[in-house]
Amino acid sequence: MTDATPLKLFNSLTRQLETFEPVHPGEARVYSCGPTVYNYPHIGNMRAYVFADVLGRVLSFKGYKLSHVINITDVGHLTDDADAGEDKMEKMAAKEAKSIWAIAEHYTEAYWADIKALNIRQPMEWSVATKYVPAMIAFAEKIADKHCYELDSGLYFDVASVADYGRLARAHTEEGEGRIEAVEGKRNAADFAIWRKTPAGETRQMEWDSPWGRGAPGWHLECSVMSGQLLGFPFDIHTGGIDHREIHHPNEIAQNQAFCCSGGLDVPGNSGAKLWMHNNFLVERSGKMSKSSGEFLRLQLLIDKGYHPLAYRLMCLQAQYRSELEFSWEGLGAALTRLKRLVMAVEQLRARLNDEGGSVIEGAEPGPKFAPLREAFAAAVSDDLGTPIALTQLEAVVALKKVDLGQKLAVIAQMDSVLGLNLLALTRAELRLKPKAATITEAEIDEVLAARRQARADKDFARSDALRDALAARGVEAMDGDPLGWDWKLEA
Ligand code: AMP
Ligand code: ZN
Q1: How far is ligand 1, taken at its centre, from the CA of residue 350, in Å?
Q2: Whose CA is nearest to atom 2 of ligand 1?
Q3: Which residue of 64, 133, 178, 353 could cross-link 405, Cys pair, CB 3.0 to 4.6 Å?
Q4: 416: helix, coil or strand?
Q5: Is 361 in contact with 340 (CB distance < 8 Å)?
């Protein structure tokens, strides 16, 4: 089923909900700013890709042929989004005493592991910045005369040379002044580097020859070049975290304008992408999520503490992407329980269907009882990716009584193709809390629990209690009669 409800998406450029109208009929072309692979992503970063994934899944659900590109930044991103600070990759390579290439490879692999664990679909292309440096130089050559000027430190983009600079950020050029470290000779405070020359007497691990001397591209350039080359200007949607609304994306837009039209931003598409979408932040109670201070919240930490990674995905879906989301371990635990309820219900449905010898009939039109829930689901996701409401519609389908089981599973599968919780494959056992630090294996626990069940069947309550105490001594709580069927849990 595809559905005909118009898809409304919030465009940060106009600060309005807009009906999605593809540039190329029947297609959706989406570019997402990817990670800078100098460190592990934190779970806040991963929220940006869960959001982009849901967007892509909704576009597929709506029947569009999706072309999605996510870039891997392995060059050029400074410790400050403006032109101050050190190159993040060079800095980490020096700290870990490794080559930049080794750093990039290690952290790209780690990022991809998180992508997989969160059931994020593979994009059409992972575009790697260093592979596009010649294309970046060609792009810069095309805009240099009319829009750039050269200083000792590099080639800079003159933001006054394009109409409406900074509209996305709702910031006037001069307002950037406080945030941007002055570079001697800049015409406007918000001007940014297109090419950063290697200072005389220095060598960088990553540097290339260019008409402006040996050096490296400015960070903003790569996304303009890769999105334009792989998706064609204008393409449909550009995504990123809300921090990119302030500097990175206004700068990309200015470059795109310079490259293709020099026109103002009242014309949709002059910005390179028709829609610019931004996910809000995942925050900790103590404030902004960080890789360097406090507990480094990596997905692997959640897994090590025993939480299935899809519980985190569900936690993200429980909030609309434009709302701030506060992370807490209690919240994650609640999301895990909610996921487990769904998985248990689906497991039971599959077992019953199997017993009845029925099967899931893909493509068949489900009966009338499903119609209002399917419509409400489609309306929710079509309303700027309303995943919190969509989840409740999915749960309502799961709770439906006296309906054909095959049809029910087919509807659940279809809804899950949008939400991506892997409901038809996950098992209850996979969702148990399994902290890495636990000193007892699941097989051992199951063995003791089986012995305990036998003792109770034999009415040997002393033995049953002794077995329970033995488990407790190893940090395992037997959960008799737990309505969710957890059987046991470990202290996280
Ligand atoms: P970076 O690797 O720093 O370029 O960030 C990767 C993506 O994560 C970008 O789209 C950021 O905007 C986004 N991002 C960074 N911090 C957070 C956060 N706490 N919550 C949600 N998204 C974030
Ligand atoms: Zn980008």
Answers
A1: 38
A2: 35
A3: 353
A4: helix
A5: no
- Quick one: pLDDT band at residue 317, thresholds 50, 70, 90? very high
Q: Could you give phi then psi for residue 368, rounded to 5 degrees? A: -65, -25
Measured from the Cα of 41, ligand 1's closest atom is: 2
DSSP labels for 150-202? EETTEEEE-GGGSTTTTTTTT--GGGGGGTS---TT-SSTT-EEEEEEPPTT-
* 64 alpha carbon – ligand 2 mean position (Å): 24
Residue 15, classified by CB atoms within 10 Å of its CB into exposed (0-12), middle (13-18) or buried (19+), is exposed
Measure the CA–CA gap between 375 and 4, rounded to whole angstroms.
10
Nearest to 92, CA basis, from 100, 82, 81: 100
Q: Kindly tell me the sign of the dihedral angle through the C-alpha atoms of 453, 457, 458, 460.
A: positive
The answer to whether residues 414 and 423 touch, using CB atoms and an 8 Å cutoff, is no
pLDDT at residue number 175: 45
Residues 6+ apart with CB under 8 A from 151: 183, 184, 185, 186
How would you class 340 by CB atoms within 10 Å of its CB: exposed for 0-12, middle for 13-18, buried for 19 or more?
Answer: buried
Give the model's confidence band at 4: pLDDT under 50 very low, under 70 low, under 90 confident, else very high.
confident
C-alpha to C-alpha distance for 151 and 161, rounded to whole angstroms: 17
Q: Hey, is 208 helix, strand or coil?
A: strand
pLDDT band at 293 (very low <50, low <70, confident <90, very high): low
Give the pLDDT of residue 338: 96
Cα(64) to centroid of ligand 1, in Å? 27
User: Which of 243, 283, 322 best tests ligand 1's pocket when mutated (most atoms within 8 Å of CB)?
Assistant: 243
At residue 278, the pLDDT reads 98
CA of 480 to the centre of ligand 2 (A): 51
Across the chain, mean pLDDT equals 91
Ligand 1 site, residue 39, Cβ cutoff 6 A: no
CB 33 within 8 A of CB 71: yes
